[in-house]
Design a protein that fits this description.
Elements: E1 2-6, H1 10-21, E2 25-29, H2 33-40, H3 51-60, E3 64-67, H4 70-74, E4 79-82, H5 97-109, E5 114-118, H6 126-137, E6 143-147
Parallel strand pairs: 1-2, 1-4, 2-3, 4-5, 5-6
Length: 170
């Protein structure tokens, strides 16, 4: 399966590395050129045991790539994951600015049917709003939007029996 992950923070990168290690072709898209350069050089911007090995293995076997070019990342991807940051406003509400930027760019760029998975932390109802926005603005009508919130535990997400290594994407 070909997967595009938008956002290579903790959730996006960990998910990408594990999916690539399971045999899927994963392209990570991010706007931060410095972060992409660091990842291409094998430097992980945070500590997660074993993640450096997963990323290195994925890069070496060609199943994990990094780009700032969304159209390239989306090419032939049947699954697109939105894993961008959702920092809190001072009043505690979720800031969805990056999610909506990703959705807008995705709607303008996607050229084939796909399933969009929202892994970013969003309030209830956001997935339905994204589905409506994609239906109204995307030229592709066969886009399905689903929520798959992350429940990773930092320090063990890439290696524990209950962590991502237990997922099956057959």
């Amino acid at each position: 399966m070909k997967v595009c992950i938008i956002g290579v923070g903790y959730v996006g990168l960990t998910t990408a590395a594990v999916l690539a290690d399971m045999g899927h072709q994963v392209t990570c898209v991010d706007k931060d050129a410095h972060k992409l350069a660091e990842l291409r050089a094998g430097r992980i911007p945070f500590y997660e045991p074993g993640l450096d090995e997963l990323v290195a293995r994925g890069r070496a076997n060609g199943r994990l790539t990094f780009t700032a070019d969304l159209p390239n990342g989306l090419a032939e991807a049947s699954v697109v994951m939105i894993a961008v940051g959702t920092p809190a406003f001072p009043d505690g509400r979720c800031n969805l600015t990056y999610v909506w930027q990703a959705v807008d760019e995705l709607a303008q760029t996607l050229t084939h049917p796909a399933t969009v998975i929202v892994k970013s932390t969003v309030p209830p109802g956001t997935t339905a709003q994204i589905q409506r926005a994609m239906a109204e603005t995307s030229r592709i009508r066969a886009v399905h939007v689903v929520a798959n919130p992350e429940f990773l535990r930092e320090g063990s997400a890439s290696r524990t029996p209950g962590g991502l290594t237990a997922l099956s994407w057959a």
